Each structure stands twice: as structure tokens, then as C-alpha cells.
UniProtKB/TrEMBL annotation:
Its EC number(s): 3.6.5.2
Reactions it catalyzes: GTP + H2O = GDP + phosphate + H(+)
Entry protein name: small monomeric GTPase
UniProt source species: Electrophorus electricus
Keywords attached to this entry: GTP-binding, Hydrolase, Lipoprotein, Membrane, Methylation, Nucleotide-binding, Prenylation
Length: 236
């Protein structure tokens, strides 16, 4: 069971597909002072799509009254508990504007564990630009096996939606991503926003357990014990 340590809420994701690859290289950072693993998740996409608001909603549980364009990067962290393990989810809210990201891009992608691509469902251009964001990510040698999710934000603006779910789903499928359609603004969507990050955290934890088990298999000694580990209960 995946519990959020700070709020004890569970989210059910508005997930539109589920075909992520199941193995990837994960070497989560460790906060040595408290022996807590840290998962680094970066959030990228055009300026104004709502990256800051989504990260705020997840880490602080609210929608900010006012935001300004992110310069460089903002870090936000949230302590969560997954199957009894305390984990820090470290969210890197990156700048969408080119002039505010130039000097930081290398840092965004270094040792990243998961990537969240965001577009604005009311701005077709922000969806079309996703291919550029994917190229940038690939160009920084982020392994294709690092989990990626696609988030269509601002679903509360129902009368202004320009990007049909079916179109977004095709893109997500083609790029091996889960698709979430949600709103950082609508409080009713709060659990869905949480689910984006909790889903990734659960996958990262599960993948790491798999790697551990595989290592044990190679030396043969703990094989049976690890095969009987409980399976992950990832919300997606
Ligand atoms: N209606 C609605 N507005 C939103 C939502 N999320 C964000 N906004 C608004 O969209 C604008 C941009 O939000 P930000 O979170 O600052 O966007 P960003 O992607 O971080 O922008 P950069 O920092 O420039 O990359 C702000 O005016 C927010 O209030 C949402 O879910 N619904």
C-alpha cells in the first residue's frame, strides 16, 4: 500500500494507458543522515503550462495564488511512505522559457530518475512542442528506460480544450508514457495530481527491488527469499 507520509491520502490516477517498460537502471540517491532514498523527478514542458502549479499541488497540497515564470529551477520535496519505506520525492520544477533554462539544462537531466512532460490541454502549440521536449531529453542521454509520464494540465477549462484525449493518448503510446489528464487548479483533482508523482515513486521503488532481486539471483544465495517479496501495489 502506498501512503503519503505527510497527508495519508491515496490517489486513484486518471491514467489513460499503462505500457511502461518494466526494467531500467536506477541508482536512487541516498540521504545519508536519515538513510532515506531520494527520487529525482524533473518536470518539463512549455512555459505557462502549469508545471509550477502541479508541483505545488503535489508537495504543498494547494494551488498558488500567483506564480511567476520559473528561472532556472525550483526544488520541492515531499516525504512519502511506500510499503513501509520512507522516500523523499524531489521534484525539479524547470523553467519553460529558453532564456531561463540555458545554463541549467545539464543539471536537470543529471542522475534523473523519472521525467514528467506537461502540456496545456487548452494550447495545441504546447502539445505540438512535446516532440522538442522529448528530443531534448533524449539528447541528454536520459535512458529510454527511465520512466516518463505525460500530463495534460488545465482540464478545468472544459470549454477551451484544444487537445483531444485520443490525440494525446496516441502520443503517449508512441513514446511509452502513461497519460494523465488533470488540473492543478481544481481541488477535486488533487488526488489525481498526487497520483502522477506517487505512481512514479512506486514504479521507481518496485524497479529497484527488481534490480536487487536480479543481483541476488546472480550470486544465487538469496534467490528464494527475494522471489517471495510482495509485489508492488503501484496506484497505476
Ligand atoms: N485554469 C487553470 N490555470 C492553471 C492551471 N495550472 C496553472 N494555471 C495557470 O497557468 C499559469 C502558468 O502556471 P505556471 O505553473 O507558472 O506555469 P509554468 O509551466 O511553471 O511556467 P514557466 O515557469 O514559465 O515554465 C498561471 O497563471 C497559473 O495560475 C490549471 O490547472 N488550470
Amino acid at each position: 500500500m502506498a501512503n503519503e507520509a505527510t497527508e495519508n491520502r491515496r490517489g486513484t490516477a486518471n491514467v489513460r494507458n499503462a505500457n511502461l517498460t518494466s526494467s531500467f537502471d536506477l541508482s536512487a540517491s541516498l540521504d545519508h543522515s536519515v538513510q532515506t532514498r531520494i527520487f529525482k523527478i524533473i518536470v518539463i514542458g512549455d512555459s505557462n503550462v502549469g508545471k509550477t502549479c502541479l508541483t505545488f499541488r503535489f508537495t504543498g497540497g494547494s494551488f498558488p495564488d500567483k506564480t511567476e515564470a520559473t528561472i532556472g529551477v525550483d526544488f520541492r520535496e515531499k516525504a512519502v511512505e511506500i510499503e513501509g519505506e520512507k522516500i523523499k520525492v524531489q521534484v525539479w520544477d524547470t523553467a519553460g522559457q529558453e532564456r531561463f533554462r540555458k545554463s541549467m539544462v545539464e543539471h536537470y537531466y543529471r542522475n534523473v530518475h523519472a521525467v514528467v512532460f506537461v502540456y496545456d490541454v487548452t494550447k495545441m502549440a504546447s502539445f505540438q512542442n512535446l516532440k522538442t521536449w522529448v528530443q531534448e531529453c533524449d539528447g541528454h542521454r536520459v535512458s529510454p528506460s527511465v520512466p516518463r509520464v505525460l500530463v495534460g494540465n488545465k482540464c478545468d477549462l472544459v470549454d477551451q480544450i484544444q487537445v483531444p484525449s485520443s490525440t494525446a493518448l496516441k502520443f503517449a503510446d508512441a513514446h511509452n508514457m502513461l497519460l494523465f489528464e488533470t488540473s492543478a487548479k481544481d481541488p477535486k483533482e488533487s488526488q489525481n495530481v498526487d497520483s502522477i508523482f506517487m505512481c512514479l515513486a512506486c514504479r521507481l521503488k518496485a524497479q529497484r527491488s527488481l534490480l536487487h532481486r536480479d543481483v541476488m539471483r546472480e550470486d544465487g544465495r538469496l534467490r528464494l527469499g527475494h522471489e517471495s517479496e510482495p509485489k508492488s501495489t503501484c496506484p497505476c
